[in-house]
Structures are given as structure tokens and as C-alpha cells.
Amino acid sequence: WDALMLSNFALEQQLHTARQELSHALYQHDAACRVIARLKKERDESRALLALAERQIPASMAGVAPAAVVSNGKRAMEDEIGPDGKKIRPGINPVMIDELTECNTMLSAQRKKRQVPPSLASIDELERYTQISSHPLHKTNKPGILSMDIHPSKDIVATGGIDTNAVLFDRTSGQILCTLAGHSKKVFPPSASDASLIYYF
């Protein structure tokens, strides 16, 4: 009976080990399938972009004057290599230069017409500003705040830093309400321009 129990225990251990190995192998197989699918998707996207670029290049080069060629169909040497020995690459064509110049003129005119809002602080007021208090919210070995927002109705400030932490700070009491350490990288503001960090965190 003792020998039978020992043999049964050994078989159960072997079964448990085999199950663990099978689970690990299935996990690796699933991860490999996911990586292969992602690589195939990226390959197809790259091929599509390459095909699109190949179709657009002839259309963009149609308006450019043809380079000088020699009898065998190759470009002339003076068009390929400059005086310094480097290969000469085609620059921006005149059509693009005209579009950039027109856009620059339009944006400059808009900036000149823009008026300073009356609620904006003047230079004299800014010079009279003084520091009332200082609160180190993030780690000193990785200082720096990348994003910040203030609650519209409560005096609460949310900051995201280089130290991968997000901090909620109560300005009235001068205390840190909580530190969110769930991020693995630097905390940047959300992509949407009208989103609030308070709701993001």
C-alpha cells in the first residue's frame, strides 16, 4: 500500500509538471501568433504605402524639368555630383515655394491683426509677481512636470511628471491628495485638445 501511494504521488507530480509545461508552451504559441499577425499587418501597410508613393512620384516629377542626359540614358555627371564631391539632390520645386510663401503671407497678416485680450496680465503686473509657496510634488531624482490642469470648481491641481507619476494636489491645504503610480512612462496630457487632465486621471 505504501509503494502504491508513493507511485501515485509521483505520477501526480509528473502530471502537474506536464500541465505547467503545456500551459507555458501554449502561452508562447499564442504570443508568437500575435507577433506574426502584427508583423504581417505592418508589412501589408508598408507595401500599401510604398505602392501609393510609387504612384505619386511620377505625377510629382511630371512638372519638373528633365535632367540633362547623355547618349546612354544616364544623367550627366555635372548633374549628379557637385563641386564638393557630394551627390546633388533635387530641392523644392517652384510650385511648393509659391505655396509656402503665400501661406506665410496669410499667417503673418492674421498675426498682425490679432489683438491682445484685455484680461492678459501686463508686463508691470508680471514683474510684481512673487513666489508665495513651493510644493515639491514629484520625485527629485526625476524632476519636471509635463502636464497640468486645475479643477474648474475646486482648488485641486493635477500634474503629470517625468517620474511616471500623476499627482492630485489640494492647493488650499497644501497637501497631496494622492499619487497615481500606475503609469510605466512619462505622463503626457491626453491627445484631445479639449480634454481635461482632471477627468483623464
From TrEMBL:
* Listed InterPro entries: Prp19 (IPR038959), Prp19_cc (IPR013915), WD40/YVTN_repeat-like_dom_sf (IPR015943), WD40_repeat_dom_sf (IPR036322)
The catalysed reaction is: S-ubiquitinyl-[E2 ubiquitin-conjugating enzyme]-L-cysteine + [acceptor protein]-L-lysine = [E2 ubiquitin-conjugating enzyme]-L-cysteine + N(6)-ubiquitinyl-[acceptor protein]-L-lysine
UniProt EC number: 2.3.2.27
**Pathway(s) per entry:** Protein modification; protein ubiquitination
Kind of enzyme, top EC level? transferase
Broad class of where this protein is predominantly found: nucleus
| Matching SUPFAM superfamilies | WD40 repeat-like
A single BP term in Gene Ontology: protein K63-linked ubiquitination
Provide the protein's localization.
Nucleus
Q: Which Gene3D superfamilies does the record associate with it?
A: YVTN repeat-like/Quinoprotein amine dehydrogenase (2.130.10.10)
Q: Name one GO molecular function term.
A: ubiquitin protein ligase activity
UniProt cross-references to Pfam families, sorted A to Z: Prp19 (PF08606)
Residue limits of the Prp19 coiled-coil region domain? 1-50
| GO cellular component labels | cytoplasm; Prp19 complex; U2-type catalytic step 1 spliceosome
Q: Which UniProt keywords apply?
A: DNA damage, DNA repair, mRNA processing, mRNA splicing, Nucleus, Spliceosome, Transferase, Ubl conjugation pathway
The record, for PANTHER family, names: PRE-MRNA-PROCESSING FACTOR 19
Family to which the UniProt record says this protein belongs: Belongs to the WD repeat PRP19 family.
Query: Which function does this protein serve?
Result: Ubiquitin-protein ligase which is mainly involved pre-mRNA splicing and DNA repair. Required for pre-mRNA splicing as component of the spliceosome.
- Subunit structure, per the record? Homotetramer.
Q: What is this protein called?
A: Pre-mRNA-processing factor 19
Q: Which organism is it from?
A: Aegilops tauschii subsp. strangulata
